[in-house]
Amino acid sequence: MYDLIVIGGGPAGLAAAYSAWENGLRKILILERDRELGGILNQCIHNGFGVKTFGEALSGPEYASRFEDMVASTEIEAKTDTMVLDISPDRTVHAINPKDGYVSFQAKSVILAMGCRERTRGAISIPGTRPSGVFSAGTAQRYMNIDGFMVGKRVVILGSGDIGLIMARRLTLEGAKVLACVEVMPHSSGLRANIARCLNDFDIPLMLSHTVTDIHGDKRITGVTVSAVDDHMVPIPGTEQEFECDTLLLSVGLVPENELTKSAGIDLDPRTRGAVVYENRETTMDGVFACGNVLHVHDLVDFVSEEATFAGKAAAEYVLNGDKGENYYSVKTSGGVTYTVPQRIHKGLGEEKINLYLRVNRTLPKAEIVVKRDGEELARFRKTHLAPGEMQSVVFTGDLLETAGSSDEIEVALEV
Amino acid sequence: METKKMTCLECPRGCQLEINVDTLEVTGNTCPRGEAFAKAEITNPLRVLTTTVRINSKTEVMLPVRTQTGMPKAKMFDAMEVIKGVRVNAPIFVGDVVVSDLCGTGVDLIATKNVRE
Ligand SMILES: Cc1cc2nc3c(=O)[nH]c(=O)nc-3n(C[C@H](O)[C@H](O)[C@H](O)COP(=O)(O)OP(=O)(O)OC[C@H]3O[C@@H](n4cnc5c(N)ncnc54)[C@H](O)[C@@H]3O)c2cc1C
Ligand code: SF4
Questions:
Q1: pTM score of the predicted model
Q2: Could you tell me if B15 lies within 8 Å of chain A, comparing CB atoms?
């Protein structure tokens, strides 16, 4: 019987396992379906990882190797090439592996750290033919950075998420011509810094409020039509522009990979598409925790590692001291806060710190995040440079919630 | 008075900086690194270059590499030409120098992944 099984060996899984070890668990197993640990970071060869955690800007593989070294210094076991298929309510984890075939393991606690997956063309529906040369940006990234082959010479990128921006620069440096980065929204969801160093540095146009309305070509893509869109994101006739290209990259967002979570019967939050969790990142299934991109899409790996550390510690507390019970406040959002993680906060936490992550629905130079109970203000956090693409975090202690009101609901609001 | 606007690239926060080209006065930065960044941007902008090189290894085809520190932005494409011709052998470890003094910039190109065999 394992104390803890971690599903997924990306940065979340590695940091969670290490934190559980540090907090006293000894029989820990990481299951990873890929041939190596490190998760999506293995293909993210650009730098910018770890500024918060290590105070330096590392590449993805470099950041992952720091956590791999930490895990290697313990007796944590890891099995790669092992795909988890199912988790039963008694926390039996069922998996397959080319060497052992079907295997199952029992655990006192489980941490879900399966990361996220890219949205594909099906999820956004573009008319036109279905020639080759249309890739998701992450697939193209894997082809170039891990498998070592070039995906195209003349490229249009649809969507201005960070992966698309990073790939615009990567392709340009490798000699391709990136014609435009096309974004349907009036703002980019990518980090401002990535727009500057990936597009502006190379004079790649960012076409906001535009979208791809047609794809041309038989076997291989030969071009795309790009149109402006109105306030309702409907293409405006007469604004069509033709681009001749051999490649179209889609960078249209990430979705947490929650098939396992769903089939285990764990409650999901439709806003985050991840599990509903308590402040210790425990899901609605006893002894099962979640962290990293499987819980909600993070923009910075530093927050992934931070969150994983809470989950690892909480799993250790669960195994060593028992469950925290189901007496909780539910967290509601208002005034432009699109979601919070956690969605529930245990009562009676005393001086214990609560790390609450949230996103807002618009770009604001400054605003305040207010925590309320029964309409009474409990805390107020001043923030600058807010944007939908940049997660915010606030920290407060459990007893703060007991200082006013009597409701079982806590409200997190945005005030400008 | 001429000013230039830019996004600070020193950390993910991405502060919006403005520099007065004559007095070199910087506004909009949250920390001193932003000030240094804005000054460099109008004289000799620096960027960390990240890319891959081919590797002879049992497990990998490509080795991720980066410049140890920022290199002149203007020399990035020259550097890519040099890097194209480079092939390394495993084992190689994070921080090992792959090309020293890349294109005469004084900056080394280093490995960013451990490839053991
Ligand atoms: C292209 C891209 C660029 C990014 N750029 C930056 C950046 O510049 N700076 C920054 O700070 N952050 C960046 N990020 C964010 C950061 O990389 C991610 O937030 C982080 O990797 C998420 O970690 P994770 O462990 O949750 O998920 P992942 O890294 O995706 O790891 C999940 C792991 O779980 C495994 N898994 C999934 N399902 C199963 C299963 N059923 N059984 C077994 N294993 C399974 C997967 O194989 C994978 O290894 C970027 C992300 C992407 C995708
Ligand atoms: S000024 Fe400082 S805080 Fe702002 S982006 Fe630059 S380094 Fe980061």
A1: 0.92
A2: yes
